[in-house]
Amino acid sequence: MEMEKSHSEDLRMLIDILRQGNAHVMELEAHLYNYETFSSETCLLLSSKLQSTFATAITMIKLMEQRGLPSLPSSSTDSPRSQSSERSFKEQERREMCKKRKSLPRWSEQVKACSGSAMEIPLDDGHSWRKYGQKDILGAKFPRCYYRCTYRHSHGCLATKQIQRSDNNSSLFDITYRGAHTCNHGFQKPSPLTNEQIIHQNQSLKVKTEALSSDEHKPESSPYFSFPLTPKSCLKPENNIFSSASKPENYEGLDSEIADIICASNSTTSSEMLKIDFGVEQFVFDSEFSFDFY
DNA sequence: CCAATTTGACCGAA
DNA sequence: TTCGGTCAAATTGG
């Protein structure tokens, strides 16, 4: 009762903090998009702001956990009855996680394999992935591989991707991403590419954002899919339109097609970006910031 | 020894 | 029940 009140206050604060973090992401993105004002210093600054935002949020969640929420399984002082509920608590947590993952934005692209020869592996997208599964898919010639962000546990980064070799053209890979990276290990220093390389890669790359059916969520609230974290397809080094290593005329030289791709997943237009939130309710409760359980 | 991958088990959705 | 996605123990590789 008393507890509940302060709990909801905490939540409100937490939400504010996360909103702030979101604002920083916007700002960061704006810088990435604006070639004129782009500076790595600014980005680093924003990145560290983001880090501290998340750190604060994490700390808050931990505190709230200690105070108001069911205690962690580790404490052996619990009454026996809480032990029986421990299982269902974990179970519940798992289910919530599942739900959350499904609600994450999704987009896919087709990527050409390294045009070497035998080494048929899709290009590295600049993020660090850890394979966690492989499945034979009904009616598909090749198995589907499942990857999650390497930093899932250390940073609570929920990004995942699936890679599946195309049936008819085995040098093509369908890659489906789910969830934007919240870790900041993502963007390795982009290697300089020539103009031709960029153009070539742009041509061989199709990005389609799968706007999830809006009936899946109450449309009026949480605009999940307008959360405009730039998909890797925009930021990944091999497409490094924004890389300071590539010359400005690269960007200007490339036509609106690229801009379309860049905007594809932000299709809700930048004017809407400002009122976007994380779908915070879910984010707060389900987030995997409980990394110290692992 | 640690971190990544492999692979069968498990679980929820359809 | 089947299928697709994830987990986690066993295995591999550095």
TrEMBL record:
Region: Disordered, residue numbers: 69-95
UniProt keyword list: DNA-binding, Nucleus, Transcription, Transcription regulation
KW Nucleotide-binding (keyword) present: no
SUPFAM superfamilies registered for this protein in UniProt: WRKY DNA-binding domain
Molecular functions per Gene Ontology: DNA binding
Domain WRKY: 118-181
Localization per Swiss-Prot or TrEMBL: Nucleus
Name recorded for this polypeptide: WRKY domain-containing protein
UniProt source species: Dendrobium thyrsiflorum
